Q: What sequence folds into this?
């Protein structure tokens, strides 16, 4: 009996040791890599961009391991709302509607929206001139929400802003409503094709979306994010990605 008890104790100790040494489960983080300079893929298919660097650095600070997934923006938000993913980072504007189904980190960037038109356009000088026009935005974004509010608008959704801007350059739509940093990046690369009109409107801020049932992860992310902000890391990211 003593021998059996001794064996059972050894088994229990081994089990506890293995449990203590087991690696914590990876945090599933989803993004939509069609939103340069925040998230895109390089020539080798690797995720790159402002958000990717930021989330990787947060994970390093917080001591968590990330399992990245790349899906369309509206699918990312839907999956996050049902806690299919633990977190999402994809230039996601913090809104009251979204807060109803997900948690958010503290804001990490002021964004705002802007109207972009074809370089040859002369009759649109801002948001007020979009009545009865054909306006594009990316599916699931705050740009889409604003476009659909405009009186008499013909709204055209696109899977990515890259496609929306391409359609604008080809005069297939009258305007695109997009996040200001994204719009400025595209305009800088294509100054002969498109331009911004009017000023930046609304007060959008980007945050990291988190499964509504995981307040512990929210706390870890916020702590790491504050440390990075205090250390000036976000200024470094801006110099690298938002030139």
A:
């Amino acid at each position: 009996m003593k021998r059996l008890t001794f064996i059972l104790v050894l088994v229990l100790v081994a089990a506890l040791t293995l449990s203590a040494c087991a690696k914590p489960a990876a945090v599933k983080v989803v993004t939509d890599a069609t939103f340069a300079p925040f998230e895109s893929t390089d020539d080798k298919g690797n995720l790159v961009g402002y958000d990717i660097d930021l989330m990787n650095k947060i994970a390093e600070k917080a001591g968590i391991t990330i399992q990245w997934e790349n899906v369309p923006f509206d699918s990312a938000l839907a999956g996050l709302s049902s806690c299919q993913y633990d977190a999402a980072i994809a230039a996601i504007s913090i809104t009251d509607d979204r807060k109803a189904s997900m948690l958010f980190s503290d804001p990490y960037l002021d964004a705002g929206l802007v109207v972009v038109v074809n370089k040859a356009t002369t009759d649109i000088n801002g948001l007020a001139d979009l009545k009865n026009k054909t306006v594009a935005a990316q599916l699931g974004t705050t740009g889409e929400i604003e476009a659909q509010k405009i009186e008499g608008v013909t709204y055209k959704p696109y899977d990515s802003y890259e496609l929306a801007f391409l359609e604008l350059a080809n005069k297939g739509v009258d305007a695109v409503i997009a996040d200001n940093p994204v719009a400025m990046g595209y305009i800088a690369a294509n100054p002969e094709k498109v331009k911004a009109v009017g000023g930046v409107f609304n007060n959008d801020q980007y945050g990291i979306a988190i499964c509504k049932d995981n307040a512990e992860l929210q706390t870890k992310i916020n702590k790491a994010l504050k440390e990075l902000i205090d250390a000036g890391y976000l200024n470094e990211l801006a110099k690298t990605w938002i030139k």
Q: What stands out?
A: The chain has a mean pLDDT of 90. The chain is about 40% helix and 20% strand. The longest strand covers residues 194-201. The longest helix spans residues 2-21.
